[in-house]
Amino acid sequence: MKAQSLVSRFCSNPTTPSIPNTKKSFFQAPTPPSSAYFSQSRKWVSFKIQHSAPQRVWYNKQNGVEEVKDGTSHGNDLENGVRRKKLAVFVSGGGSNFKSIHEASLGGSVHGDIVVLVTNKRGCGGSVYARDNGIPVVLFPKTKDKPDGLAPNDLVAELRKFEVDFVLLAGYLKLIPVELIRAYPRSILNIHPSLLPAFGGKGYYGMKVHKAVIASGARFSGPTIHFVDEHYDTGRILAQSVVPVLAKDTAEELAARVLQEEHRLYVEVTTALCEERIIWREDGVPLIQSKENPSEYR
């Protein structure tokens, strides 16, 4: 199989035929079912957001939420008629994709702000980075070892308090509860370090994925970004990017190349998400609308 045949629709290719733009772009809003969908033509109410430097974070043991005393926010609520989105990111480890998206948000390429971090490991690298940057941290799930964590319904309520539009999983290793999926339909994304549906599902995460790819003899790998359903790695695929598997690759070497591509791809997808450029075909397949030419998809 030629490498070009595996290249994602997300990657720009001037020879790829465009898909006729016969459908409206729809997003699922994390609000009551009666207003679950809204179109790109919706008029948004503008309101001014004040800039402020990150404030000291303190931990509230009663509800498992770390809060920022005065909060932080970022400006330019409207851009080309599109409201700036509020993002929640879930991590279990170092959170390098979380950092990439946050930096892109601060730099202006992502028209959205990370307003809360959710983690199952209070001391992980992603949590430390969030605290250092004034981002509130929520502990989830509640367990015997973490009695101060939140239950699923409490997590949904907490995200509502932060007015979260979209949820981004960035190395979060727990299964997302059905309560959250139902509260945020078509609004939760995950990134996986293989070309799904290959090397996905329960037990396939981190270095285990890259070892399995090499052992299989596969010639290509790469990250997949997909919408989240009630199972591991089975939601609709939104974007993929191809990374070659070299003849003498170790799992660590392959992982490093895939991770570098993850950082690029997740930022680009988050940018499209916040700009309301995700459309759904009638068969339920999500596509990314080109910003430069709205009649083309990738």
TrEMBL record:
Cellular component aspect of the GO annotation: chloroplast
UniProt keyword terms in alphabetical order: Chloroplast, Plastid, Purine biosynthesis, Transferase, Transit peptide
Known catalytic reactions: N(1)-(5-phospho-beta-D-ribosyl)glycinamide + (6R)-10-formyltetrahydrofolate = N(2)-formyl-N(1)-(5-phospho-beta-D-ribosyl)glycinamide + (6S)-5,6,7,8-tetrahydrofolate + H(+)
HAMAP family per the UniProt record, alphabetical: PurN
Highest classification ranks of the organism: Eukaryota, Viridiplantae, Streptophyta, Embryophyta, Tracheophyta
Full protein name: Phosphoribosylglycinamide formyltransferase, chloroplastic
Compartments it resides in: Plastid, Chloroplast
Top-tier EC class: transferase
Domain of life where this protein originates: Eukaryota
UniProt cross-references to InterPro entries, sorted A to Z: Formyl_transf_N, Formyl_transf_N_sf, GART, GART_AS
Name of the coding gene: LOC115981687
The EC number(s) this enzyme carries: 2.1.2.2
One GO MF term: phosphoribosylglycinamide formyltransferase activity
